[in-house]
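Lab notebook, bench 4. The sequencing result for the construct came back, and we need a structural model before the next group meeting so we can plan mutations. Quick request posted to the team channel:

Model the 3D structure of this chain.
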Amino acid sequence: MTVADNIAPTVAANAITLNLISSTVTLQASNSTFNTTTDNDTCTALVSTVSVDGSIPASSYEFSTIGTYNVTLAVTDASGNSSTNSSTVTVTTAPTVLWSEDFENDAVGDMCGTGTQNAADNNFSVACAASSDYAGPASFGGSTQFMFEDAEGVEVLSPVISISGYIVDVTVAVSGNAALDVSDRLFLYTNVDGAGYVQQVIRTDEADVADIDLQGITGSTLQAKVVVFNDPNERYYIDNLVIQGCQDLDGDGICDPVDDCVDFPAGACGCINQTACNYDAAATLDDGSCNLPGMMCSAPSGGSVGLYTPNVLGNGCDCVTQSLAQLYSEVFDDDINLNESNQATPVCSSTGFVANGNNWSVSCSNGTGVFTFPSSQLETDTDLAFNVYQASDAVLTTASIDVSSYAYALVSAVVDPNFSSPNLEANDGLGHQYFQGWCQYWHHCESFR
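Done. Here's the predicted structure in token form:
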């Protein structure tokens, strides 16, 4: 008996930082730090794509400019079930290299001996088990790399590196020969602030010799080590071990080049606009936190909104409730579309449908079986609503409203709780603002200065 799989993957997209070392840096949808998706079917591969700020989904995306980006990860399993999740990717400037080792200045030869052996320049060390055959620099691929053969837990260790004030990455170039098999293992461990080694990466697939890129490490000190187990004639190679990072002087987890405000020394960031309600005389850097008179201080509710208003003492602002002016409304009670038999009929068509008085219109391309029309929610209910049924691309548009003389505009909607989650979009001619919901009525609101 065949059991159908109708369970979508549990998609997990994690916020990460990418360092723009050259002209571009690439985010792979399969990046194991960014993508930690799980699925009930563990036997077949998942297909992952990324979309950055609305771009066409693809298996990877190439960034060329520093900044913070909204990234949507979509994952599909072998049965066609799919799901999405979003996070942010921060792209920052080329990192500061805090330690590196490319083995080019090290003599070719086995470094296994009694206890821990230091490189001639003390830039790395090697610890070998007694039965290990060979662990040391060797010629491979046109360069000198570190080779492991018959390595029974051989460790290659970095020095203890100061990473205070940085967000760091650990990268390792990995390769191997064709003799590697399923018994071979390669691990990457980190020891932050002397708290003990933590396993970060494990390679158990002999065909998996992709480079390692471990990101987002913070602390005061870091030591990294690579540990390998393999058999005679089976060889792992590592090269270009690098610990590098971006400065994060205020320790807020955001690289300074893309931080809105670097609060260093502490207290430097704040509101420096003297007309603001929350002016900070001690601050020297603007962090975008200023609350100006007339800005909303509480969410609109019941036809009113709270606005920052200077108080009578002149030492700040109070949150004062102001009434809203309704500039547009649509309740759909006079727009039901009836046929000759007095039955509500669909309004979906390629030419669209314009309501009485041109107060709203609707368009949708789907044909037979699609119902997008005002109808009562209950047979005994005379309060009509805009009913969307089996319309994947229905778009309801209001008439254009002049809000040029108003400081703020609010768009609201009442939504049947049984509805799915379509989008409510307000277009001010300069950009878009997105809300969850669908339209039963819309209104803009007035605010006061």
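The two ends are 70 Å apart (CA to CA).
Will bring this to the meeting.
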